[in-house]
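Exam revision sheet. Question 4 asks you to relate a sequence to its structure. Input first:
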Amino acid sequence: MCLRLTLSTDCRVCNRRRIRCDRRVPTCSKCEKRGLTCSGYGVLLKWGQGVASRGKLKGRSIPISSGDTPVSVLHPIEVSNSPDENISLSGDESPEIDPSFSLETRMIPEPLLPFQLQGSDERYLLYHYDRIVASNMTWGDCHENPWRHIIIPLALESPPLLNAILAFAAKHINAVSLSASRNSTSVMPVACPDRFQQKAVKLLAQEIKEFVTERGSQASSDIHKDVSRNHSNAILATMLVLCNVETVWPDSSFWQVHLNAARTVIASSNDSLSSKALEDSTSEFLEQELFIANTFASTTNFLNFTLHEDFKLSSATSKPSSIFIEFLKLLQMVTSLERQAMTNPEVLANSGVSSSGLRKLFENARSRTLAMDNTFQVSESHDYVHISRTANCFYHAGLIYSYRALLKGEFLVLGLFTEKEIQIRTSKLELFRALGFTETNRPTFAQDLVWPLFIAGTEATQTDEQDLVIAKLKQAMSETGFSNCQHALEFLNAFWQKRNFNKEQENNLDWIAFAREWTGQGRTFLVF
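Answer key, structure tokens:
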């Protein structure tokens, strides 16, 4: 996920007001302080009232002039940044509706837009996805957010993916409209949001069937490989979006189905990252997002959850999509060792894992993360402070998780066991100290902290510690509109109760063993 937190142009509201903009994303602070709706920095979303918004077909109601041969072309372009030219999704002039994505159609047969976008409701859902949902999907929103600038153009050529992001937006709107921290009068609930999701799943099944047939019949030319790769990218993107759709409401466990399907697509693909073109940024982004989701999901799910041991990021990846990717690589390694040790305990004995070794690995990950501010162009001191604090949270949460997962008490001599407990207590103290200063009252930052908060919860023994975890997790869910951590809170409450009933074994109670038992009863949860 990208994290370039400042831009080279002022927001359009500050431009219109003729004042200097601080260019903070997702909204500038001057608009925020005055209670104005910051219209953003991208290009405008302008829906033409005919075949084309300009050119020789401007104003025509049919797409063909004499002598023209219809060609199917639909691609995003930049349009005027003037607020006066902006058109709302209802057709009324409104300078406030100002998304960063725009469309132009040229010489295409009816329907001019994908049929799913011919209604104002559908266009509003695309607007909500563009402005709100895509912002919440990154570790820090930016002008080149791939959930916006890769997924939306891809969706305009893939009906299953388009319906998936419409479903995503519809369910998110309904969740946000019920949140006490939002102004519910400004977001009207969407009727029957499941219709988009059901259609996406149906179309996806057809798409997979066509893809399998297509791959079986195509020759192995470079052109055919490119076509096959684009097709597989759209399928993988649809599965990832549907997986995230299931995180909006807490009562769904279907995220597992979509995540497992996405992993199967990757595992069965003949086009690994090493064989892809270096400029194939779409494939890189999708595989990194799958790696991130898979890594987090595998830390809290055990039964009926296949961990692909060989599913690792390729060294050919040109740019990480997450500023915290170094920590995630370590979490994947730790989880893989823990799962292998369940069936073969000698794995840990032969791995050479030690408390000091794990600490060095996570120290290196923290150093590389803090050095990425140049890669992600983090320039505002406020945002850099948040990244530094979040990196510390991941450092200490990752250490605690690794100690609990790999340094099992039964395999340690007394001296090493004591060292492990001292390290855990030290990291717990530092983790809670860092979490006390981190922000969960802004969607841009709240989503970064849910996993460190969960690990803090597994170590929380005092009421004030547990209250802090509960409050910040609830605030994060409220701010982002994603309620999947509700089941994680239920797990933590059950774990705390069990620990209260076993005071004499409080320090030896293993949350991972308890989670394995918990999920074995069908109560899966995702901390993501």
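Marking note for examiners. The two ends are 14 Å apart (CA to CA).
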